[in-house]
Amino acid sequence: MAALATFNNGRSGSGRVGGSGIGGYLVRRAMPHLPPWLGVGGVGIAGSGAHLMWADSVGAGVGLTLSAVALTGATWWAGRETSPQRRLHSAITVAAGSSWFAGAALAGPLAGILPDTFLMGGAVLALSWNVRMALRTSDGPVAGSADKSLLEKVGLAKAKIGRTEVEPNRVTASLALEAGEQTNDDVARALVRIASALDLPQSAVRYQADPDSARRGELVIVPKDMLTEPQEWEGPSNVGGSIMDPLVIGRYDDGSPLQIWLPGDPAAGRNAQHFLIAGGTGSGKGDTALNVQTEILSRRDVIMWLSDPKSFQDFRPLLPAYDWAVEGGSGTEAMVAALQHVIPARTGWLGKHSYRQWTPQAAEQQTDPTHSCRPDGACGCEGMPYMVAWMEEAANTLRNLGDDAFTGIAQEARSAGCSLIVSLQRPSYDQMSTSTRASLPSVIALGCDPRDEGFSLPEAVINAGAHPGAWGNRRPGYCYVVAGGIDPDRYAAPGRTQQFTQAATAVMEMLAQWAVRNGATADPITAWAAKAIVGRAYTGRQAEETESADMQHDHDGEEELVDGEQLDAEDAAIDPDAELPAAAEGDDAPLFGQPTGHKPSPDEARQLFARALDEFEQQGQMVVGPKDFMDWCDANGYSRPWVSARLKDAAMEGRLEPTNQTGRWRIVPVLAAA
């Protein structure tokens, strides 16, 4: 704490003195020790002057005596906040000086023993203060006493401050607590009082407990918040680099970069990671997601799937860069189903090519015999890029699919070279199963309700001083990051992600086009596994887009000109002069208030229902239920119970598979069913 005071206020009495060489050096070294000697000289001069005024005055003698007693008592009272040694030393000095002054004023400075007392006693008192000052600059009795006073205030009187390191905007002091009486938990509870004593925000004081001791740790104080001014995003940090390299998403409160990693690194002893991004409304969750996504999409060996029930409100400039992007509802249901089948397919490919976990080498063509699926040399297989599955506003998905929708994915995806990132406001256990939450240990925790801190951060990090509840939505982008690859001492250090302004939109659009031309595309194994489950719903990002393809897409479904008139494409082949077909058996007779038409037979109805499933598949809607057939029922005169029965029949025939959600079915692509 004394080091912090020095760090904040600078050293007093260190004014620069002109001159150089030995003489200048001696003067500079002597100056801090001059005040006690100047005080002795001042008392001598004042006593001689007072003798001229009050010599042989009885009243002055009484007044000077009482003044000496009062001054000594005031000194003793004023020293009650200091150490006992300093208090006693100050009182003795004042008593001796005031007594000599009174005697010199009444009898004269040269009377009796006053000259000897002045020369010897004054020198001793001045030297005693010089010695005290010299000891003060050594290893610490005075600094320790100042620290002791502060620790007493916060209830840690028996704790001892050890080695202290002062860095730019950071003070670190080792702390040893009283054995058998105090624990690291006591320091965690006292952090807010320490911040109050130092007049600092709560997040500026944190405690890193020694994992090998219950009573030792380091107290870290960051007096100046360097995150007050937001840092605007100017572009990704490493365009064209590997996803194995760190993702820079902001900075810490001491100015160092805030970085995270997704793939595992055997050399660094780091496993692949899933992430939970949690924060209340207005906490900066959208900007944080953009920081992470722009870093991912700027790398050459990764693909990303995105589910966003908010209709890509924040991510629309990046849409061309995603390998697959869907909104909520049936699209997300299809993506989750595809992930559940893609993961084992990717794991099998990595295993056959002798990868214990994904590495950048796995994304390249397999020309190394040690990573071959053939026993007779290099296989030449196409590489497999890393994969990121991003579930934005996941609370919506969890409500629809169940709180364990991501459990299997989270538990198995890391071995498949895949990271799952789940973003939601409140990761409470009534929204997300405990198994899923346990599989998402890496977290970016933004401001939240104080009651929700325990849902986002581990208890040990909260005890170390991390409190996102202190920010709420008042400091967008402020966050704590707990993840592999980050020094655990940094877990309780606040950071802030970069801010995305309107000017960032053009840069994100450029990044998306870069990804279209230079980014990775899905490998055959991933693409095959996805299409086998969701068919045409998964298209994958194309490496090249031609103008003709865009034009063809733009003209799809337009009306055709027939004899100068516009007709729908489906009506272009109709002969307007042909006779209408005669009534067939089964045609309904017109009844009042009821539509007329042909009622299909049971076999025809089944065929009609099969064609309806084909239409859903062609449109990319791979998860259906009775509510999706409401318009179809109205058009064909069938009831919802009839549709439910047909859905069950189709499931028995292998055309549908049940999902985790009651009453919802996943369409099995025709090729997969065959």
From TrEMBL:
Please name the InterPro entries in this protein's record.
FtsK/SpoIIIE/SftA, FtsK_dom, P-loop_NTPase
Q: Does the keyword Plastid apply?
A: no
Keyword entries, A-Z: ATP-binding, Membrane, Nucleotide-binding, Transmembrane, Transmembrane helix
The UniProt GO MF terms for this protein read: ATP binding; DNA binding
Region described as Disordered: spans on this chain: 541-560, 583-603
User: What name appears for this protein in its UniProt entry?
Assistant: Sporulation protein SsgA
* Domain of life of the organism encoding this protein: Bacteria
Which SUPFAM superfamilies does the record cross-reference, listed alphabetically? P-loop containing nucleoside triphosphate hydrolases (SSF52540)
Q: Which residues bind ATP?
A: G279, G280, T281, G282, S283, G284, K285, G286
NCBIfam families tied to this protein: plasmid_TraB
The membrane spanning regions, by residue number, are: 60-79, 91-111
Is Membrane set as a keyword in this record?
A: yes
Upper taxonomic lineage: Bacteria, Bacillati, Actinomycetota, Actinomycetes, Kitasatosporales
Q: From what organism does this protein derive? A: Streptomyces violaceoruber
Annotated FtsK domain residues? 255-455
